[in-house]
Amino acid sequence: MDAAIACLQRYGLEKTAMSDIASAAGVTKPTLYNYFTSRDELITSALNRAARNLGKRLVEHARRFDTPADQVVEAVLFCLREIPNEPGLATTTHDQSDSFAARVALRPASLAIARHVLDEIFADRSSQLEDVDEIAEILIRWMLSLLTLDGPAPRDEHETRALLHRRMVPGLGLGSNLETH
After folding, report:
1. CATH value at residue 108
2. In Å, how far are 33, 50, 74, 77, 83 from 80, measured between CA atoms?
3. pLDDT at position 178, please?
4. Range of the domain at 100
5. Is residue 32 part of a domain?
6. Per the structure, how many domains does the chain have?
7. What would the pLDDT profile of 74-100 be if each residue is shown by its tens digit?
8. In a domain, 20, yes or no
9. 3-state secondary structure (DSSP) of residue 156
10. Which of 22, 57, 64, 152 has a 20 to 30 Å separation from 74 between CA atoms?
11. Do the domain assignments include residue 30?
């Protein structure tokens, strides 16, 4: 998986081939196919591992904030800052012609990682949320949009934070009933 991440960084998401990964790992293509049925499966596994590692840092960051609304907004901002610099994950934000990132982002394994991160961030409050799985899906969709699509005008972090509080937080149901618990 380290070789897959290195190839993603070197060749990009669209151009990385199993032969590139095998060469970088010092193994043969048939050896890779003993462990992974396809290029997409290998890359998905590598990206999920990278996402879990990012998720650990994300939880530490988001827990510094007091309310679920602030925690989720700061989590999104953290991802917007970190994903473009994260080995492997950064490649998912560069090439919009390949919908691989969008396909992988909403697979059950990716949603499970997002759900786990939210459970960790919200700790004892996650049982108070109406549907953490749905919140995870919506957050992934927001982040994909913010990472891959240019807005009508550039926004700095302060403006993006305000947008997320105005538009995303109410849609996620992170209202005042959770603010003080």
Report:
1. 1.10.357
2. 34, 15, 10, 5, 6
3. 45
4. 48-179
5. no
6. 1
7. 999 999 999 888 877 776 654 544 556
8. no
9. coil
10. 152
11. no
pLDDT at 136 over 80: yes
Q: What share of the chain is helix, strand, coil (3-state, %, to 5)?
A: 75, 0, 25
pTM for the structure as a whole = 0.77
Q: What is the DSSP string of 54-111?
A: HHHHHHHHHTTSSSHHHHHHHHHHHHHHHGGGSTTTTHHHH-TT-THHHHHHTSHHHH
Q: Which pLDDT belongs to residue 100?
A: 60
Per residue in 105-127, pLDDT tens? 787 878 888 888 898 988 766 55
Predicted confidence at residue 77, as pLDDT, reads 96
Q: Does some domain include residue 127?
A: yes
Please state, in angstroms and rounded to a whole number, the distance separating the CA atoms of residues 116 and 101. 20
